[in-house]
Write the structure tokens for this entry.
Amino acid sequence: MLKLFYRCAVWLSAASLGLAENPILTGADPHAVLIEGVVYLYPTSGPHNLFYAYSSPDLLVWQRHGPILDFKQIDWIPSGKRAWAPSLIEKDGTYYFYYSVGPKPSHIGVAFGRSPDGPFADRGRALLSDNGEPGFEAIDPMVFRDPNSGRYYLYAGGSAGATLRVFELTDDLIGLKSEMEVQTPPRFTEGAFMHFRNGRYYLSYSHGRWRESSYSVHYAMAPGPLGPWDYQGAILTGNETYKGPGHHSFLYIPSADRWYLFYHRWENVEGEGPYRGSRKIAAELIDYEADGRIRPVVMTQEGVGPVCLQSAASP
């Protein structure tokens, strides 16, 4: 333990000489995971129907991997579709990569591989489709393992219809076992994310229009992964400097004993929108009240600084 603290202290002192400011990457819809002392980000990367992974040992220096998935190599995806909003989860040494195919009629696909930096092989058909029907858009997948039951749930739903749907996944994580009965929480638009802390379930999501200043992150608390939702309000909203923060993920880093929020925002834009250009990915610290509520997040240029990701169990 003392060796770990010494190693981190020396490393952080040296790393602090570098830049650790926001934004950290160009892109949107970042899903963050911690794997063996490395943080991986899976964002919407650009217009070329490719996905990339980005990894960092310190939240300071990022390395790009891939492309980890290419729509041109997936036969079932119709022409003219774009690669949106992915997420990743690991089970028994296999990494499962879920991704959106848009615009509407939209689909959610799933691919899998043996490494978090790919490549990933698609299962050969869509996991979920909306078939162009009104009221629901099959985008923005997020898979959550319930620590109490061990079940895996797929949360999905986008701006066309602004409806949240939740499914239990099959044991192999590439099929749907059954749809669960859930209510769509207040002010839900898209980008659902579920995390668990101190016995409470937190469903967070984007509200508003993605190219306008109304885009923001709201959340609800619940006693279980399917609700009922106790709406708590906004935790991330635009200001004079940064506009339209949205589609996000929470990440707990044990070595720091802190929660972090990764999200995208518009920079160097004015007015209410619609904005044009490229969104940027940023990271902030999360703080909780004694009763479990999340304190509103202030967007910064400083970001979270270098973080020692080595756990106490590291040799």
Notes: Confidence is low (pLDDT under 50) at residues 1-7, 9-17. DSSP finds one helix and 21 strands in the chain. Residues 2-15 form the longest helix (14 residues). Helices lie at 2-15.
